Amino acid sequence: MSEVKYKFRVRWADLDPNGHMRHTAYNDYCAQARLMYFEEISMPFQKLLEMNVGPILFREDTRFFKEIRMNEEFEVGFTISKLRKDGSKWSFRHNIYTKDGDLSAKIDVDGAWLDIEKRRTTVPPAELSGLLNDGIKSEDFEWIPDKVKA
């Protein structure tokens, strides 16, 4: 399997004045797909909070190819495209497909785990790191080099 996909339908609130899905709605559906993926691998958001970690984003890069309109069904794909072996930093890729399977948009996000109490990036618990290491990888997956200590 090259990516996991989640089905959605464009809502009224997702539209821009031109009648197609607005740019930020794409990002919102990708965030929802990430949460769905983590739930699917037995790491629901509540469990992350209990572990005292939460995801933070450093960058979202969105490229648009084909519009999606009101009430159309579409799919959001998810893969891990980059990962540090300890799971502390990652990049996820989302391909968004029209109901006909055409690529509508590609969104790459870079992020890390935040220690919720200390408000600093952190290495996640081993259980979460292991799930990420075993997670579904993109075809061009890369390991992020470990930190170099001075």
From TrEMBL:
Signal peptide start and end residues: none
Listed InterPro entries: 4-hydroxybenzoyl-CoA_TE, HotDog_dom_sf
GO molecular function: fatty acyl-CoA hydrolase activity
Entry's transmembrane regions: none
Keywords: Hydrolase
Hydrolase listed as a keyword: yes
PANTHER family the UniProt entry points to: 4-HYDROXYBENZOYL-COA THIOESTERASE FAMILY MEMBER (PTHR31793), LONG-CHAIN ACYL-COA THIOESTERASE FADM (PTHR31793:SF24)
Name the UniProt record assigns to this protein: Acyl-CoA thioester hydrolase
Organism whose genome encodes this protein: Ekhidna lutea
Native organism taxonomy: Bacteria, Pseudomonadati, Bacteroidota, Cytophagia, Cytophagales
